[in-house]
Amino acid sequence: MAANQIMKPTVGNGYKYQAQGSGTAVTEPAWPTTIGATVAQDGITYECIDEIHEPAECVLSADSAGLGTNTPGAALDIGVSVTGGVAVPIYLRVDQGAHPFGTYTDIKIVVPDLLQSAI
After folding, report:
1. Is residue 101 part of a domain?
2. Residue 51: how many other CB atoms lie within 10 Å
3. Are the C-beta atoms of 73 and 55 separated by less than 8 Å?
């Protein structure tokens, strides 16, 4: 396990954790479910850093107005928007849990099938 690595338990509990140091984990600890709580196991300390959100809790939109009307868990088609080579804003609303405002660098957008075609 590398320092600062983010992971989830083998048996999901709805939370993710960050290793505070490096080492070899032999067994999993009894994972805390309070954000900010820590637990140590096999010489590694883990911090509970956030909830894991299911797709049905997340709404994507190309503008802020769409966050109130788009379907939770639905894909966001930005195909035409990315043809110009400029950054495209994507709005995200998570409907479960309370989180502080801030910049989150661990949000990832998965593109399982990217289809490119000439216009």
Report:
1. no
2. 18
3. yes
Task: Indicate whether 114 belongs to any domain.
Answer: no
Q: What single-letter DSSP state applies at residue 82?
A: G
Burial of 17 (C-beta count, 10 Å sphere; 0-12/13-18/19+) = buried
pLDDT values of the chain reduced to their tens digit, one per residue, 119 residues? 788 899 899 998 989 999 998 888 889 999 999 999 999 999 999 999 988 877 788 888 888 899 889 998 888 887 766 666 677 778 888 776 555 545 555 556 655 555 454 44
- Overall number of domains in the chain: 2
Q: Where are the beta strands (DSSP E) in 3-100?
A: 6-7, 15-19, 38-41, 44-51, 58-61, 91-94
42 in the same domain as 15: yes
- For residue 93, the 8-state DSSP code is E
- Distances in Å between the Cα of 4 and the Cα atoms of 8, 34, 93 are 13, 18, 26
Residues 47, 72, single domain; the answer is no
